[in-house]
Amino acid sequence: MITQPLHPKGPSFSRIITGVWRWNSLSSETVERLIQTSLTEGITTFDHADIYGDHTCEEIFGSVLKKDIALRKKMQLVSKCGIKFPSARRPNTWIKHYDTSEDHIVWSVDNSLKMLGTDHLDLLLIHRPDPLLNLHEVSEAFVKLKAAGKILHFGVSNFTTSQFEMLQQFLPVPLVTNQIEISLSRIDPLFNGDLDLLMKHQASAMAWSPLGGGKLRYEDRDWFGKASKYNATYSQLALAWLLKHPGNIFPILGTTKPERITEAAKSINIDLDKQDWFEMLKWAMGGKEVA
Ligand SMILES: NC(=O)c1ccc[n+]([C@@H]2O[C@H](COP(=O)([O-])OP(=O)(O)OC[C@H]3O[C@@H](n4cnc5c(N)ncnc54)[C@H](OP(=O)(O)O)[C@@H]3O)[C@@H](O)[C@H]2O)c1
Hints:
Blueprint (H helix, E strand, L loop, with lengths): L2 E3 L6 E3 L2 E3 L8 H13 L4 E3 L4 H4 L1 H11 L8 E6 L1 E2 L12 E2 L3 H15 L6 E4 L8 H13 L6 E4 L3 H10 L4 E7 L12 H7 L3 E5 L17 H5 L3 H10 L6 E4 L4 H8 L8 H11 L7
Parallel strand pairs: 3-4, 3-12, 4-5, 5-8, 8-9, 9-10, 10-11, 11-12
Antiparallel strand pairs: 1-2, 6-7
The structure holds NADP nicotinamide-adenine-dinucleotide phosphate.
């Protein structure tokens, strides 16, 4: 698996990333197997958020890192902050809301570092655009966290193009990604300016739910014999379709099964023919060809 910079100023991530959102009900043995399988396949980047698993996923992952202190140096860690929701772990929160205040961002990062048992994150994302976002406070928080060596790079998630531009204009550091939903079941970023804007900024998209969150059963679709043409599974083809985009999309896997990580890693070797790519786009557009 190759690693590639998200942005000219870094960080360098594995071209496919493992996401931990769905790992909350797993034992630490299974989590360890998922981490080890990812690393064996060259998937060295892991995507977290403070809230995953009702604030438990970072801690479970951290328990594996604490057992083997050599592991942290073999991987890059991403986490997110800014969403709050009612939880036994957060007794003062009574409604789901966003908090991108300087105090909360800094507190959340310190907490993520503690849960994961590490001294830094390779990338921090603001999880969702906050209507009460204070540009000055976000900027202050980022500057502080970078100066302290706690966060190496910064980005956003689920931001519109104008929200991305607005924040970027105010920051002394580059936003290296916008983590957004992109897949054959969510093709709008190809046409709504999301990917164009990132390319303009030399930043890369991280694609969440690259297999449509598992709702789309690609096995049900016969992509015109492509599985046999490429000797690949439908999931591999769906990932190869994302990897073909010139904007360097980094798909984030959501599986809880080590064997599916191994399967997905092989998609990196599939170079789809242009017409096959467009035929899959046609399928994603409900059978309509491009104009
Ligand atoms: N920034 C954001 O707002 C945001 C939002 C959502 C997610 N994310 C990130 O993106 C990551 C991936 O999202 P996701 O979990 O929705 O990704 P996904 O890979 O599209 O979906 C994963 C789901 O699909 C199932 N699946 C995978 N391969 C399958 C196959 N061949 N056949 C049938 N089912 C299959 C998995 O089940 P098994 O476990 O059984 O394999 C799992 O339930 C998350 O872990 C998280 O890190 C970010």
